[in-house]
Amino acid sequence: MQITAKTISEFINGVIEGDPDVVVNDVSKIEEGKKGTIAFLGNEKYKNYIYETNASIVIVNKEFVPEKKVACTLIRVENPYEAFAAILQLKENGRNSITGIDKNCFIHETAIYGKDFYLGAFSYIGKNVVIGNNVKIFPQVYIGDNSKVGDNTIIYPGVKIYHECIIGSNCIIHAGTVIGSDGFGFALQNECEYKKIPQIGNVIIKDNVEIGSNCSVDRATMGSTIIGKGVKIDNLVQIAHNVEIGDNTIIVSQVGIAGSTKIGKNCTIAGQVGITGHLKIADNVKIGAQSGVTSNVEKDGDIILGSPAVNIRDAKRTIAVYKNLPQLRNEIIELRRELEKIKKEGGIK
């Protein structure tokens, strides 16, 4: 990436203060800025670095007033963080602009793929697979028979997509994630033996979804496990069979969601949350970290916390009591001593 301050300012609708012809070829943090890089100032606590940074260009808020001379070129915008994100996306797009099919891969003769397709080495594309335009599939990816992948989707190394799964457009699936492995379905035959229940459904991932590394999304027993539009899933998340996740929900690392639970739109599920099966979670619900959800959440916009998870007001009261338990214990011990002393002195029969 070789780009001038003038070009960048036009791209992010900014106003230049300094040399419009200065060239950058990389990005950096403001505190680690090097010559030839662009950084941004989005947090007041980092403002002192703008007088020390070696970055050639720094994106700042329109209202920023320097307290002393600034050596770098400034580009003033409404939202520095948003503008810098756009530049990072531009850099990422350049990195993922590759096309072509590596000779060391397999594509079944019935598979169909669109233009500007990239397929990395040692990848496998099964029977009747349909892949859209501008799809990037990195090395060692497996896509099973009768699956579909929409336009502009990126699938990173080592992803496994089982048969008959559907991946939407503009999705990103990170390394090591497995889509469509069998749901955990077993029927108890006697006291100690289980019989496997065939999992004959699939997984449907809608448009604009991003799934982190080493996640598992299980196929449905029947029907579909569904990930709604715009859902963002962090690393190390387990989503069981027949789960449905509403549009634009965020799921943070190490969450586990048991089978057939239905989660609403625009929810936030923090790290290490466990949700039992066959529940319904309303829209706009927020679930605090390490919560254990064992019952339906029926109120739109509710905030729950704890294990078992309860409304945050009740959870805070419980936490307050819990924090005081050592003091309460000591007070009870002291009261017992006082009571024993009174008994010995004959004050209580």
Q: How much strand?
A: 25-35%
How many domains comprise the coordinates?
3
Provide the gyration radius in Å: 28 Å
Percent of residues in helical segments?
10-25%
- On the 0 to 100 scale, the average pLDDT is 94
Side by side, the strands of the main sheet go: 8-11-14-17-20-25-28-31-34-37-39-40
Name the shape in a single word: flat
Low-confidence sequence ranges: none
User: Which structural class should the secondary elements be placed in?
Assistant: alpha/beta
The main pleated sheet reads as: 12 strands, mixed
Distance between the termini: 90 Å
Known CATH architecture of the largest domain: 3 Solenoid
Tell me, what is the CATH class of the largest domain? Answer: Mainly Beta
Task: Tell how many strands the DSSP assignment holds.
Answer: 40
Task: From the 3D structure, determine the CATH topology of the largest domain.
Answer: UDP N-Acetylglucosamine Acyltransferase, domain 1
Total of DSSP H or I helical runs spanning 4+ residues: 4
